[in-house]
Design goal:
With 105 residues, chain A is mainly alpha-helical. Chain A is 54% helix and 7% strand. The chains are: A mainly alpha (105), B alpha/beta (350). Chain A binds chain B through residues 5-8, 10-11, 39-41, 45-46, 49-50, 52-64, 66-67, 85-86, 88-90, and chain B through 14-15, 44, 46, 238, 268, 270-271, 274-275, 279, 281-282, 284, 286-288, 290-292, 294-295, 297-301, 304, 307-308, 325-329.
Chain lengths: 105, 350
């Protein structure tokens, strides 16, 4: 498991290299968690909107999604789990992730 | 002068942005009248990248483009060598450093790197060369190892197990080789053979000889830590927040009280309220609908952050500083310079 951020991806790649070198365990997959999909609105269209929370939240979202892409490209193209907005507790997160994982099967 | 050195310890769980916050704080402090060093004990070289330095070492290196700022990192193995030489007689030090049991401990003892880091920090404070020192702690145990390392290391070297193995009084070098020695070693000798036993015995005795000096040093290091300004960095995610709680609970053990909690990747709380209201001023209905739905999601996150952090600062009586969530973490001196602009309460702290 990893997340598409610099530190996590670099450490994941180091771990993969180490596990591959020892040849004791097969890695079945590398699952990226908390992945953001870009909004269906371009950065230019967002930039044209008035200053305020909708614009700022849109810019942050697309900026984060773009930054994540760089790190996702450094990982194998295995299943990815979405960023779960609005889930507060580990149990809520686990239940939602379980539903998503079932859809992979 | 030692008393004029201000020390800032930046700690918290892994992945919350400690290294970045440390670098940004150091840049903020450094200047012609404030010689500042930022030291990282994180084996990754992110600090070096952020500061455009690619060959950090134990010796502080000037950071290009920032007057008065130096940066250093820590080679745990080299630092243990220094510790052994400082707290043992030369011949004991040489023996210990050659001993493969000691090398194994230096490489694997969880507090070893942290102790070496505290030692380096203390030497920098005592050198009188620095007006400010910023320490980026290792993420192990949420940064707790850095604070607990002096007592744990002293416990290891002079611990009850070691005393039990070597006896109440420091024994003569040959004492442990004899079958009349400790029962455990007697069994070990039978099972493993005399040569191995000699190595073990020699190692244990040498370790004991370091005890008095090292435990005295550990007490001084703890005093430096207690005088430092400690900031706990976190995000609003459950795991780092749990680490913050643990941190406050366990640091009382060594009489250290953090000065502030810094919430990194903070969302504006007004997003939560704004998400409940209609969006105005965006004529295109599709753009409006997408941005509204997005604001509802992020507004929920802002509310979740507020809930998650609620009470932490009040509970422990420390200020909560917030650093806004930005899409791309700063990775250059220029972006590090402005990242802490506008963080309320920070300048009072530093």
């Amino acid at each position: 498991m990893t997340i598409p951020e610099e530190l996590a991806v670099l450490e994941t790649r180091e771990a993969i290299a180490h596990i591959d070198a020892t040849r004791q365990v097969m890695i079945a997959g590398v699952v990226a968690n908390r992945v953001l999909e870009p909004l269906d609105v371009s950065d230019a269209a967002i930039a044209d909107t008035p200053d305020g929370p909708p614009r700022a939240a849109g810019m942050l979202h697309n900026g984060l999604a773009e930054a994540q892409m760089i790190w996702l490209e450094a990982l194998p193209n295995d299943p990815r789990l979405p960023f779960l907005f609005g889930f507060h507790t580990p149990v809520e997160v686990a239940e939602r992730l379980a539903e998503i994982c079932e859809s992979f099967a | 002068m030692t008393h004029s050195t201000r020390t800032f310890i930046v700690t918290g769980a892994g992945g919350v942005g400690k290294t970045t916050i440390s670098a940004a704080t150091a840049i903020r402090l450094a200047g012609p009248d404030c010689r500042t060093v930022v030291m990282t004990v994180d084996p990754a070289r992110r600090l070096a990248d952020a500061l455009d330095l690619h060959s950090l070492s134990n010796d502080p290196t000037p950071v290009p483009g920032v007057t008065g700022l130096w940066a250093s990192t820590l080679d745990a193995s080299a630092s243990w060598e220094g510790v052994v030489h400082r707290y043992s007689d030369p011949e004991v030090a040489e023996r210990l450093l050659q001993n493969h049991y000691f090398r194994a401990i230096a490489d694997r003892f969880p507090a070893a790197q942290a102790f070496a880091a505290t030692e380096t920090m203390s030497m920098m404070i005592e050198s009188g060369n620095w007006d400010a020192i910023v320490v980026d702690t290792p993420p192990s145990a949420g940064g707790l190892d850095f604070f607990l390392a002096p007592s744990r290391t002293a416990d290891l070297v002079g611990g009850r197990l070691l005393h039990w193995l070597t006896g109440a009084q420091l024994p003569g070098r040959r004492f442990l080789y004899r079958f009349t020695g400790r029962p455990l070693l007697k069994i070990a000798d039978t099972v493993l053979g005399g040569a191995l036993l000699e190595d073990v015995a020699e190692f244990l005795i040498d370790l004991r000889t370091m005890h008095d000096r090292l435990s005295a040093r550990a007490a001084i290091i703890q005093q430096h830590q207690q005088r430092a300004t400690t900031v706990v960095v976190t995000t609003a995610d459950p795991a780092p927040v749990a680490e913050v709680l643990r941190f406050f609970e366990e640091l009382t053990e060594v009489s250290i009280a953090p000065a502030a909690v810094l919430l990194n990747r903070a969302l504006p709380v007004e997003w939560a309220d704004a998400a409940r209201n209609p969006i105005r001023g965006i004529p295109d209905p599709e753009v409006r609908a997408v941005l509204k739905a997005n604001l509802v999601r992020w507004g929920g996150e802002a509310r979740r952050q507020a809930t998650s952090m609620e009470g932490i600062a009040q509970r422990y009586g420390v200020p909560l500083l917030t650093v806004p969530w930005i899409s791309e973490p700063p990775t250059a001196v220029e972006s590090l310079t402005w990242m802490l602009d506008g963080v309320e309460g920070l300048d009072t702290l530093i």
